[in-house]
Amino acid sequence: MRFRLQAFGLHLSGSATALSIVLGTFWLGWYRWPGWYLASALHVVGLVVMVDLVLGPTLTLIVANPLKPRAALARDISIIVAVQLIALVYGGVTLWGGRPLYYTFSVDRLELVQASDLKPEDIAVARRENPALAPWWYSRPRWIWAPLPENPEEAKRIAMGTVTGGADVIQMPRYFRAWEQGLPQLRTRLQKIDDLSDFSREEKHTLRTRVLRLGLPPDQADAMVLWGGSRRVLAVFDLKTLEILALLKAD
Asked: What pTM was estimated for this model as a whole?
């Protein structure tokens, strides 16, 4: 039993180290709050953790029989490690493709833009026409303003295309502008928590409670919803500086 436990401990420590390096890199680089929540990253992370920290070391505990020939033991553990590596690569590729790149303000709402939301051709155009705000492989999440283009025909085309399932302006980084430039328009779109139609009555009660706990007034028009797929959080702004004071879950 001692041999099995030693093999289990070595396997667990090695798996934990590899997993910590990979997930830590993604966390520090792209998935800090609220990225992991809005991008639903925990589903992928949970699968990888289950395979690499639970299934892999447990199987090693089972197969690590000291009476088994060393060649057979090495083969069995190699198969287990190969499955773990496949899971780790799958998780890494999925997290890379879904990494948050932008938190955008456009027209009247805040939205998360993930790497998978952007088409290669739109990225290529942005790198030529708007390189400062275009996404690059090393880009980390940025807060930006995504206004409709000044050309009325182009703006109308994008708006109509969005209605019919086409790309929205938040998926066209060539039109992105600095976050600070959009703050005057953002100020006019802020609402009171009770006026936000995207939250239920129970969720609004929860949000009001959390805002109060932070020492902030819950009855002033200083809030906006930040969407990421089907998930959303409440963004609370300082009305003087328009600095984001809090990003709060409603559940």
From this structure: 0.89
